[in-house]
Write a structure and sequence with these properties.
Radius of gyration: 14 Å
Strand order of the largest sheet: 1-3-2-4
Shape: elongated
Helix content: 10-25%
Structural class: alpha+beta
Largest sheet: 4 strands, mixed
Length: 77
């Protein structure tokens, strides 16, 4: 599932709490800025991988933003 950054990491992260309790949220992939350019320029987004059922024990976070320049029309396909 693709979610905006503020849904998971803001002060009132109710969605994150629900996912942690009701689902096995095993992976969060933080996408680089510009992933959705030109449709939503500058949006920070995450791809989350989860299974409904058991509560979360361990979460792997892969940060695709570190050491990556923003994606633009000129630099990316």
């Amino acid at each position: 599932m693709v979610l905006p950054d503020n849904v998971l990491f803001e002060d009132k992260a109710e969605v994150f709490e629900i996912l942690m309790q009701d689902c096995n949220l095993h992976t969060i992939l933080r996408l680089p800025r510009g992933t959705f350019t030109p449709y939503a320029q500058g949006v920070k987004a995450n791809v989350i991988f989860f299974q409904k059922g058991l509560p979360t024990e361990t979460v792997w976070i892969f940060d695709g933003r570190s050491n990556v320049e923003g994606i633009t029309k000129k630099t990316g396909p």
